[in-house]
């Protein structure tokens, strides 16, 4: 029995022993896009909106001793405002409130608007235009279900770094100095192998001096991460409209522009702009968490994320996390929650989103994300916790600690499209977080990133596990990470049973970066890609055993008085040549390795018990 299976068995036993197996007689409401909010919410006379159903639940749940289920008929639920759930929406008396798709139905929660009445604006360039509501902002556009292209240049247009920003003699950039597009113009940089930053332009002088907006400029010159170095292109200007599929929003005139693809007929094309930054916001508090809530079988689509804020852009340091003040931002998610207890999201689909799929933040405990699919996301699929202080500075008993999180049996691919320095799954400062049996592929950067702090003393980061995941075709754009990347002080960490292959860039497929301690790495299969080594470790007190690889190198950059260990190895300076008992031909994996390969990835029929 795998560690994951044993853990699930124990959880199931606790489920019954603690009383969660008690039968609750259900009370039900029904919702349909074709319903009526004046109806009673019955199966034959459903409500029309989820808000109305939520309010109906509020009227009964505080005194209810039964499960309450809101059944959603299939169809499009177009939201004009984020659905907010607070502690008053929680299940009571050990029973749950469930928001669940009716069997065989596909309810879709959508945060977009339809953009209509397109007219030809520029005959020569075939640029079409349409109006959007005053004050509308968005960073994605979909035409007939296909994501359009943010306008961008082919290269950096000759930008040269200076002490005040950039310098340029490029005539095209100089022509933007008095253009309305200057208000939205951005420089995209790649200052490190693992970074991709978006920096808003403030001014372009006739002499070619380019300055960045504040406070972004102060942030990117504060230290090495983030940074304004190495610009690679500029984006988000009307003048950059050049190719079919390009689009641009001129916010000042509330006008969106688009060059149709060959298959687009703008007289009947369905054009949708995502405008909500969150579809569901679970807003608990230390005094009243959102508890005993489940979402099952729902689809989430059409969100945007308008970066950190005016003048900030997107100055990330690593893994789409901040480094310096303001250090309290996070990429928004379609389902975003803080101070959660016993919340489950299962069998849901997340697609065409402008930020993350799910955020599990501040003080959340016993949360499960299971059997979901995430694809076509601008940022990551799931984020657990944060990568900045004060998250890592609290005591081991602080109520804000995020713990007992399970992310299992999910399929994650084609994410981090607009913000490629993000990860399929990111977990920062957490305790007892298990990431198991997921399938992650086609990623620009890391598959799973767990931990933070670069050796910083943290009192509570213990018991985190990465088990039986299948990860491949990752690090396809950026570098200096791995399929499984860990960072910071850990206790009793376990990386076991994972199958990794076809990594696109440096470094180790399993990468224990600065400060990583007390990890046990065992029973993994790593099939080499373009990286030099299958295993890279720093820190100290990390131990690897009984792994299988067709590669030959392990990179040891460990520190501290307690060395790391790798079984069956021959040490050569800072390099390790893996002994024959580890190195295998991909055409001749032993049975133990084949068993690991077969067990990795989602187990569709695996029953995951409720969070607690």
Characteristic key phrases:
612 residues, mainly beta, Pectate Lyase C-like, 2 domains, 13-stranded parallel beta sheet, 13-stranded mixed beta sheet, 5 helices, 52 strands, 8% helix, globular, disordered N terminus
Describe this structure in words.
The chain has 612 residues and is mainly beta. The chain folds into two domains: 3-110 and 276-599, Pectate Lyase C-like, CATH 2.160.20; 120-269, no CATH class. The chain has five helices and 52 strands. Strand 15 (186-189) and strand 16 (197-204) form a beta hairpin. The longest helix is centred in the N-terminal third of the chain and has 15 residues, at 3-17. The protein is globular, with a radius of gyration of 25 Å. Mean pLDDT is 89; it is low at 3-24 and 568-581.
What is this entry, summarized?
It contains five helices and 52 strands.
CATH topology of the largest domain: Pectate Lyase C-like
**What share of the residues does DSSP label as strand, in percent?**
25-35%
Count of DSSP H/I helices? 5
- Major sheet details: 13 strands, parallel
Average predicted local confidence, pLDDT:
89
In terms of quaternary structure, the protein is single chain
Number of domains: 2
Rg over CA atoms, rounded to whole Å, is 25 Å
The geometry reads as globular
- Second rung of CATH, namely the architecture of the largest domain: 3 Solenoid
* Unreliable stretches: 3-24, 568-581
Number of strands: 52
Helix/strand-derived category reads mainly beta
First-residue to last-residue Cα separation = 22 Å
Strands of the widest sheet, in order across it, are 1-2-5-23-26-29-32-35-38-41-44-47-50
What portion of residues is helical?
under 10%
């Amino acid at each position: 029995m795998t560690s994951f299976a044993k853990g699930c068995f124990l959880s199931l036993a606790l489920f019954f022993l603690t009383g969660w197996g008690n039968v609750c007689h259900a009370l039900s409401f029904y919702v349909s896009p074709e319903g009526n909010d004046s109806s009673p919410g019955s199966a034959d006379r459903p409500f029309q909106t989820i808000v109305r159903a939520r309010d109906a639940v509020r009227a009964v749940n505080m005194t209810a001793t039964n499960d309450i289920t809101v059944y959603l008929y299939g169809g499009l639920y177009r939201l004009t405002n984020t659905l907010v759930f607070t502690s008053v929406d929680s299940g009571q008396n050990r029973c749950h409130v469930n928001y669940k798709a009716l069997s065989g139905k596909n309810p879709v929660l959508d945060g977009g608007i339809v953009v209509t009445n397109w007219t030809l604006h520029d005959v020569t360039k075939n640029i079409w235009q349409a109006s959007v509501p005053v004050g509308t902002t968005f960073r994605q556009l979909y035409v007939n279900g296909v994501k359009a292209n943010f306008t961008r240049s082919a290269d950096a247009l000759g930008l040269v770094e200076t002490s005040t920003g950039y310098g340029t003699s490029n005539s095209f950039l100089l022509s933007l100095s008095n253009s309305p597009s200057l208000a939205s113009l951005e420089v995209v940089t790649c200052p490190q192998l693992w970074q991709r930053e978006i920096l808003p332009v403030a001014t372009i002088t006739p002499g070619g001096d380019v300055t960045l907006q504040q406070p972004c400029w102060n942030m990117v010159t504060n230290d090495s991460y983030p940074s304004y170095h190495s610009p690679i292109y500029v984006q988000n200007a009307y003048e950059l409209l050049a190719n079919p599929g390009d689009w641009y929003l001129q916010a000042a005139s509330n006008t969106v522009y688009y060059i149709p693809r060959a298959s687009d007929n703008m007289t009947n094309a369905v054009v949708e702009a995502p405008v909500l930054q969150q579809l569901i916001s679970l807003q608990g508090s230390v005094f009243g968490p959102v508890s005993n809530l489940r979402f099952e079988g729902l689809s989430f689509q059409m969100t945007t994320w308008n970066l950190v804020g005016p003048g900030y852009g997107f100055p990330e340091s690593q893994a789409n996390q901040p480094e310096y003040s303001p250090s309290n931002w996070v990429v928004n998610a379609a389902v975003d929650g803080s101070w959660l207890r016993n919340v489950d999201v299962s069998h849901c689909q997340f697609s065409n989103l402008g930020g993350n799929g799910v955020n599990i933040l501040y003080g959340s405990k016993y949360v499960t994300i299971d059997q979901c699919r995430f694809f076509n996301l601008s940022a990551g699929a799931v984020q657990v916790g944060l990568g900045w202080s004060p998250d890592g500075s609290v005591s081991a008993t602080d109520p804000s600690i995020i713990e007992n999180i399970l992310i299992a049996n999910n399929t994650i691919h084609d994410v981090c499209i607009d913000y490629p320095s993000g990860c399929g799954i990111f977990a920062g400062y957490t305790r007892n977080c298990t990431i198991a049996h997921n399938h992650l592929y086609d990623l620009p950067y890391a598959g799973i990133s767990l931990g933070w702090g670069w050796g910083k003393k943290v009192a509570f980061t213990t018991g985190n596990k990465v088990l039986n995941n299948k990860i491949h075709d990752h690090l396809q754009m950026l570098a200096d990470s791995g399929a499984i990347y860990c960072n910071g002080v850990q206790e009793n960490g376990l990386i076991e049973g994972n199958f990794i292959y076809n990594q696109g860039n440096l470094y180790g497929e399993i990468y224990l970066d600065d400060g990583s301690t007390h990890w046990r790495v065992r029973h993994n299969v790593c099939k080499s890609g373009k990286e030099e080594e299958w295993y890279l470790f720093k820190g100290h007190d990390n131990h690897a055993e009984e792994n299988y690889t067709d590669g030959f190198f392990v990179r040891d950059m460990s520190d501290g008085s307690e060395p790391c260990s790798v079984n069956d190895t021959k040490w050569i300076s800072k390099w390790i040549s893996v002994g024959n008992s580890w190195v295998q031909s991909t055409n001749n994996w032993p049975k133990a390795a084949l068993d690991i390969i077969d067990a990795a990835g989602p187990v569709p029929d695996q029953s995951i018990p409720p969070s607690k």
